[in-house]
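During the reporting period the student researcher (J.K.) took over the structure-prediction task from the postdoctoral fellow and processed the backlog of single-chain submissions. One of the processed entries is reproduced below for the supervisory committee.
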Amino acid sequence: MPSSGVGGNGTASTFGDLTGLTRKDVDNFLRGLGATVKTTPAGYIEYKFADKSKVTIRPDGEVVRIPAPRYDADGRNINKGLRLGKDGSLLPTRDQFGNLIPNTDNTLEIVSD
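J.K. obtained the following structure tokens:
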């Protein structure tokens, strides 16, 4: 099973790199953490946790992690659009001007069949 992640951004940040694990092992592990599972018509498998953090496995095995939402005093989601790295840390996806940072949607975390 994976090592510990950095935490602090929801359940999806509490475990380390899933690379090399099989889809079945990852499925058992994430379900064991309380994830609800949904498969999309396009073949994506989405694991959503009670804190609203999420792990998605694309059809090619690539893993995408989304942090639990955080809100400011006005109720605005302040981490919308951010992703988590394979160690569970926040990855900035936009620069200080709001422009997308290239290649921040791929952490090279891949599960096997």
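The committee noted the following: The chain has one domain: 11-91.
J.K. will present the remaining backlog at the next meeting.
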